[in-house]
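Provenance and format

Records in this collection were gathered into a single text stream. Each protein contributes a sequence line and a token line. The two records reproduced below are adjacent in the stream.
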Amino acid sequence: MIIGIVGSIASGKDTVADYLKTKGFAALSLSDTLRKLMRQDGAEITTSNMTEYGNNLRNTKGYDYLAKEASKEIKSNEDVIVTSIRQVGEVEYFKQMANFTLVKLDAPIELRLDRLIKRGREGDIKNLTELQEIEAKQADGKGGGMNMNRCYQLADEEIINDGTFDELYQKVDDLVLNLRSKDQL
């Protein structure tokens, strides 16, 4: 089973991935793949720079480039969670794989901003205006640009992460159980 997560900034993508790792899933992050490539080039890692760098990579190396790079880590018959899918080419690449399900993960913007401030990750957004501006840039990109709105439309399932960790984990458990039962049909 391969579960892909497409989600707004600070919606809980890494939290879901970390939880599924405790359930035996391998975890891949397209953002981690991008950060690794940026470090190799000596680029400063900020949310804005990651958007621009990723868009440039997709335009020069293919819209599915980050997906291809990350998927090199997938072993056959392995349960995998893939996070930070943000471009239609990436979705299309993964949808070619057997047992792939794309899940939209979202949360209210005020809650996501609070999470960003608390986590203090390198290059993270610090205020609501910046969050709104970056999400607007990521919403409807053309060519190799991020197109979150279209990715959301391509999702097979949706989870709203607006509660406690335990509530999120229950939603994830329910999703996995549902997907496993579909595999048995």
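Adjacent record:
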Amino acid sequence: MRGYLVQPAGDGPLPAVIVIHENRGLNPYIEDVARRMAVEGFLALAPDGLAPIGGYPGNDDDGKVMQKSLDRDKLFTDLLNSARYLKAHELSNGKLGATGFCYGGGVVNKFAVVMGADLNGGVPFYCSAPNPEDVATIQAPLMIHYAEDDKRINASQEEYRKALDSHNKGFVMYTYEGTRHGFHNDSTPRYNEEQAKIAWERTIAFFKKHLS
């Protein structure tokens, strides 16, 4: 695996956040999210799930085709190993947060299921939910962001909420008025500057609370 590691100014130990890309590899937008995390004081790693087949190709359309060709189980394992690498990094304080967008948000939910207490906070954006029967193993607090106009993703929102509630998990869900799937991505027409800013500020405050 290859990835984009961004270190804040100053010495460690530092809280760590892994940033998981959408369904198109490690594009400039996700690299920028990692840089923004570092500006806020986090050791940030954005792995490139396309690394085993050459890496992000330079445009999102080809990236989507490449990512679709990957074995999904192996891709998840590669990303999980990246998260474990970051948590154990010499500059890390041992506390790990994870955020991701679209496909990457689903990975964050899956991290929460499989990592247990090794994940200290998760912030998935507009993504698929885990199976309700898997929610019991989640230990990390979650902040889950949804777009208002995102029918396929939002179809599982209420079921996910009920599963988290029934197992007394720590979580908060936000749905952003007037937004579509991908509203945080400032490289696409779906970008909603006002709502993306609110979601980002909430995300940073959440990680500062749980990873310090």
